Structures are given as C-alpha cells and as structure tokens.
Amino acid sequence: MAAAIPSPLAVSSRSCLLPCLFCHTRPHNWKRIILPFPTDSPPLRRAALGVFAHARRGFSFQEDDYASPSDLKFVPPLKIVEYPDPRLRARNKRINTFDENLKKLADEMFDVMYKTDGIGLSAPQVGMNIQLMVFNPAGERGEGEEIVLVNPVVQKATKKTLLCNEGCLSFPGIFADVERPASVKIDARDIMGARFRFNLSKLPARVFQHEFDHLQ
Ligand SMILES: [Zn+2]
Q1: Domains of the chain by start residue, with CATH
Q2: What InterPro entries does this protein map onto (predicted)?
Q3: Looking at CB atoms within 10 Å, which of 60, 110, 166, 211 has the fewest?
Q4: How far apart are CA 73 and CA 177, in angstroms?
C-alpha cells in the first residue's frame, strides 16, 4: 500500500549507495532515479529549457488546470513513457478528486516503479498529465517508506547544493550530474487530499526534486 505522509527522516539504509557528493561512478546495484533532462545532451537541454520557460509563462490556477475524470482515467498495466513522447512535456493538471481511482493509480505507479528498478516515478512518465508522484528511496516493495504526493509545491530550498549523478526511466541509458538544493520544504496533499508540509533532505530530497521537475 502507498503511505501518504512521508517522514522527513525517511532515509533507508540503501541511501548510502547513492552515488552522490561529486562521485561520478555508479555502484553495481545503482537504482535509477528520475532525471528531468540529460544535461550532457545539448539538444535535449535546449529543448528542456524551452519547456520550462513555457510552463512558467502559462502558470495559473484557473479551472481548466484541474484534472477532469478523463484526465484521471487509466488502463493497467501502466507503461513507462520514453523521450521524445510529447506527454513528457505536456502541462500537468492539478488534482482535486481524491477517490479510489487515484489510490489505484498510485498503486499501479508503484508497481511500474519497482518493476523497472526505479525509486521514484511521476505521472507524466506513465502518460498521465497530472500533478502526482510516488517514490520510495528504498527501491524495494515492503522496505523503506512509500510516499505519494499530489499537487506538490516547493516552499523553500536551501542555498547549499549537492551534485549527484542521476538517471531517468524516461531517458534510458543516460546519466548526468545534476546540482540541486540539499534540502527542500514542501507543501503537498496526500492521497486522501489532506494538505501537509514537511522538509526533505538527503536521498528523499534528491528523488523528490527530480520527480518535481517532471511535473513542471
Ligand atoms: Zn526522470
């Protein structure tokens, strides 16, 4: 089952295996996390910047920003969407319907994530353009803590940053060093629709920020 409220200290023993802090090599049991865009690929990076600029210009909370029943409809099993699928760049709508369908979708996303050796997954990566992400830094079903975030917003980010090598299920075979804030303060809703705020650091902060990029 997908736990809704993460613990700020939810760091599994596997987190020490993350190739982080200027480490450029990957351990043999490296779990793939989600890379927004491969920074070592100039064409992709330029395209990514264009998408980000567009997303910010178009940002608002109008009625059509909320997902309709058809936006939330899915047929399992879900499959990973890979670049250059346009769904990876489409606008992701906010969610205001918290029901059994949404819980089922989150469970299905965890299934795909574990099967593909991921530790995080965003909804657009399974072709759903909605503000939903799941992650479990442990990367194994039954271990660590499963986290589901709906409509997440970053309230604060530390000036201190860390460099870490990331991969992405939607960009198979591509890895790149990505610099991100070491800790972030987040505002989100859980799978039941309850609003909450919390701080993330270490591996959970890294995974969250990667997934969050997919939702912008
Ligand atoms: Zn990714």
Answers
A1: 13-215 (3.90.45.10)
A2: Peptide_deformylase, Peptide_deformylase_sf
A3: 60
A4: 35
Edge-to-edge order in the sheet of strand 120-122: 120-122, 132-135, 147-157, 183-189, 195-201
Mean pLDDT of 81-92: 97
| Per-residue model confidence (pLDDT) at position 11 | 32
Distance between CA atoms of residues 123 and 92, nearest Å: 9
Ligand 1 geometric centre to CA of 163 (Å): 16
The token pair at 17 is 């295996």
- Collapsed DSSP state (helix, strand, coil) of residue 51: helix
Reported as half-sphere exposure (CB side, CA atoms, 13 A), residue 117 has a value of 8
**What pLDDT, on a 0 to 100 scale, did the predictor assign at position 65?**
87
Could you tell me the distance, in angstroms and rounded to a whole number, from the CA of residue 92 to the centre of ligand 1?
15
Contact 33, 206 (CB under 8 A): yes
Q: What are phi and psi of 190, to 5 degrees?
A: -90, -175
pLDDT at 104: 98
The predicted-structure confidence for 147-167, as pLDDT tens digits, reads as follows: 999 999 999 999 999 999 999
What are the backbone angles phi and psi of residue 157, rounded to the nearest 5°?
-140, 140
Statement: residue 88 has pLDDT above 60 = yes
d(CA 114, CA 156): 30
Q: Ligand 1 mean position to 139 CA, how many Å?
A: 15
Tokens coding 189 = 């809703």
Distances (CA, A) of 207 to 109, 134, 145: 15, 10, 13
